Amino acid sequence: MFRKFWRRAVMRGLTAGLVLGGLLLAWMGFVAVRGFSAMPVRSEMAVIFGTAVTAEGKPRPALQERLEEGLRLWRVGLVRIVMVSGAIESGNHQDEARIMADWLRTRGVPAFAIIVDSHGNNTWLTALHVAQMRPDGAIVVTQWFHVLRAEWALRHAGVAPVSGAAPSRFRPVELWYLFRDSMALPVYVLTKAPPG
After folding, report:
1. What are the recorded Gene Ontology BP terms (predicted)?
2. Which of 82, 122, 157, 179 has its CA 20 to 30 A from that of 186?
3. Model-level pTM greater than 0.70?
């Protein structure tokens, strides 16, 4: 009797695990496809999300790719303004947004076309800061795995229309970030209240 009960419990647990695992993989696949297929739409503003910089104040490869994509959008006239949003890093105390702005300026983007947000400590804070600017549309510029959450955050904060742009490069380590972002978006949906 106990053996039968135990066997049934194990089988039910395995079945539930397989179903949940399948749902998670499908959701991650959706997040990935949305990121890789992101198509920027002409908007007033590009929002480049910050990420790690070196102790010497240089963009790391992922950030440089975002900056190159944002610069491309500005050069082809898809945006008029570029907002760079990042944190002041706790370890090396570098200001990601200032470093991003300097990178853009040295490549021809005039200072009046750049908005610097040094308090974009996370995706939601950046979205709130963009919403305060009331732009006529925004393009989120970030890695493919982050596009869907970034777009959702801006829309939920009140920005419209919102589209996305991502560098085309893929690194195997980004699969971990895909998993993380796939978990983070439902948390955002459940916990982030729109402003006002």
Report:
1. Gram-negative-bacterium-type cell wall biogenesis; peptidoglycan metabolic process
2. 82
3. yes
